[in-house]
Sequence to fold (785 residues):
Amino acid sequence: MLSDYIPRCLDPTWLLRFLEHSARYVRAETRALVTCLDLRGFAVGAGPLFADGRSLSKALRLLSATWPRLRCLLLDRHPGLADLDALRVAPGSNSEPLLLLSIAHCRDELPPSFFASPHLKSLVYLDVSDIPGSLRGPLVQRTLCPANLPSLRILKAQKRELDNKTASLLFKVFKTQLWSVDLSGNKLTDGVFDDIHEYSFPEPSSRTGDFAVEGRVVHRTEGSGSFGRFCTVNESEWSVAFSHPHRFLADAPFYATHAHDGPEPPVNPRLSGQAKVRPDSADGIKKLFSGDAGSHAPLLEHLHELDVCREQQGITHLHLNGNKVSAAALGRFLRSSSGQLQHLECDSMSFNLPQHVPSTWLSKASLSGILGLAHLFRPVFSANLQALRIHHSLVTQLLSLELGGMSAMASLWVAETLLLPRAELAYPEAFVPDMNPRLQSLVLTQIPRYSAGPLIHKLIHFLKLASIQERAIQDIKATNRRGPATLLGLRHIRFEFEPDPRDALEDDVEIELPHDPAAVMDDYSKDFSFFGESNWSSEPSTTSKPSSMSTAAVERHSPRNPSEPRGQTCSCESARPESPHSPSSHESHPSTEATHLLHTWSWNAQTFTLPVWIGFRTADQCTPAVREYMRLLRAQPHLQADPVPASPCHVAAGVPPGELIFSAAWEAILVPPSPPPTPAALHFHSAAPLPPLPPPSATTVPDRSRNSCGFVPRPTRDQLSGMRDVLAAIKAYRAQTKRAYEELKRTAERDGGRGEVKLGEPHFHWTGRLEVSVEEGSSRYWDWR
Fold:
């Protein structure tokens, strides 16, 4: 691989001299060893690599003549390749075709004839991201099409001004030929999901797993425009708590019913769960085609047998970062995908309140994130999902808030103090590792740098859950050495943080924030102690599990949220059963009587009239979320709109399974009363309704530009001063668990052992790969293994 040896700081003309020298004086056998030329970082800061088209054509002619086995060419951030005829291969030569071409961020617009070049016939990977011009012209003129690119499997077209119509044309032209598409940074909206499903997804296939382990999706004939076709999850006694003893076992191999069916299955079964994530990045494909540095490249005839070169029956890797899609549309897409996706990236999505919600200060704010859809990432919906990049609210339940006239720091405080408790009330189910043990990589984006406490608690708790999952898989391997294979579990986590908001603090107050990691972790020292006293419950599990480190167990051992007073517990603990033998959501309330309201609506030219659940007649034993739902329906009848089937998240909040509810009223629970309630009124086990009283420690100032929206909450100086550095807390926790893990290993060695220490409890150090990205000018990454 020549890219590992070319200097990065030489003058661009050096490359031309090097090519000429290699063609004259280097033996043909030696030149035949070069299969990849990576110039993405070459001559950085020295200007364009080729100053004019003649130099470019000359270089291309030298490439094909000097290195006949060149398969991968990467020219990012250099002029576009408008003239590929220079790569013409002489008749009868032994030159190999180009398989990978990356010209992202080039400055020249590509003509439509570029994609019709015969030198691209064998391309498997093509990156034309961030280049002037749109792809609509090549698509309309049918130059960007399967006839000219029959081998293309991976297409990256970031920042190409693609709208829904252009994207629809792309999917319609290529249909299921592409298995990886990157359309990040374009102008796509919710309609793009319908086009992907119509053109680039195969017919629904057999992807169901074990009902006892995962539950089963039940489809109904009804539907709605916001939800799509109605479906519910039929839970088993184990799947409701993600605690089945076999939840970490890989699927058995597929066997054909008849010998004449051959090795290929007649249906498209789901992945077994053991294979690693199939790469679709330039570096990953380059490694497959050219091998590692110092090793021989695979033969060309063997490359065509690689999984990345074969047609995969539709898109399995989808990148939609930086587009204007909504969380509701993503939910509809996942419900109808039949487990097709293996790699999904959608880092930002809008969270839209229902139009029937009365106008408040929150209705004038911009919200982004995802709530109440964690169950869609379970194997019952996303059986093949291995890598996910998504907004952090999937795990933290904390939406991103932007409010006009308020600084980023103050917006963080408002979102975490006022919105988060209500989000936990209405949507108590957040994503945890055991929800989908098939997921191997998780990237959480747009994480705030500062927190009043709950955000830090949730991120650290998630790392602890990952450690517990790792221990459970280890225990299965130790007790079943000759048994079935296990899943890999979550092995890679990356936290991507937003820029530091302190620069915009002058809009509110000028304060100094703490930066000492020891001080940041001081409030959590008791919660996350390893060998001393703790606030965690030590009651043994009442259910027989393959390991004591189950998800249900960690919820009983989860650290208390610093924002909650003693004696209170997290909302998810009260709403979700801890074991299959506890009173589950499948049981009806003996002392309550459900009531319904007939509702009529239309969908797909059909009219439906069905009873919609509006609560219980007596609210003494209702959960706080159900009481608030009932109160909103009685106080605001216009919220009796948009019926949807109760999801596992609704069931966890207290809705009986199998019922229809008014989603407009349920989503309105997220809106704080105006003026905002006291923090004490937001505790999840309070039997009283939420009183509309202002918090004593907060100041509310009227927003004169929004007189119809009431009061806009603003934090005080002391409240902003109390916010902590999330990055420092994560770093301190990671160092603490690693020290405890290493100390146990040293103790085991001194006791005569081999230094082997069980994972999980008591140190809770997760041995996977943890990365942190901080956006400060250019992104910086830290890798904390």
In short: Residues 506-592, 676-709 have pLDDT under 50 and may be disordered.
